Please model this.
Amino acid sequence: MAYEIVGESVKSALGQQIMRVFPGVTWYKEQITNLRFPHFFVLQLALQSDEERKGYWWMQYLVNIRYRHVSDPTTMSTIQEALDGVALKMLTEFNTIMWDNIPVRIINPRYEKIDGVLQYFCNIRVQITKARMEEIKQMSLATNLIIET
Model:
């Protein structure tokens, strides 16, 4: 069965995993002015496409998920411990995501903490085929053919 890959689908799949692993915690994929804490922000940093063989490509996404526990991290004395707890849970629970009901493995997960914000990075790699324009044109011709008797 073929699935169409759209730009936001990888963010949505990660957001669904966040909701499964961290129920009740808000996640965003767009900039929001009135934030709820704690929250996750999913950002796609890069997309790379490499042809493996004729008609088959590897799409590799570099993703950054930011986690903020409180609005002002200087007010929480145990902020580093809280961020480490979330990071370790992400490293253990974010091995596979469901993307259009297909399990996709997360590769090269890592994290760092900067100014009270957890920065989780990972790669997602999927093999795709691109629609072939000539075949599509031929399919269109076949369906538009009218035979008169």
Q: What stands out?
A: The longest strand covers residues 39-53. The chain has a mean pLDDT of 86. The two ends are 37 Å apart (CA to CA). The longest helix spans residues 79-93.
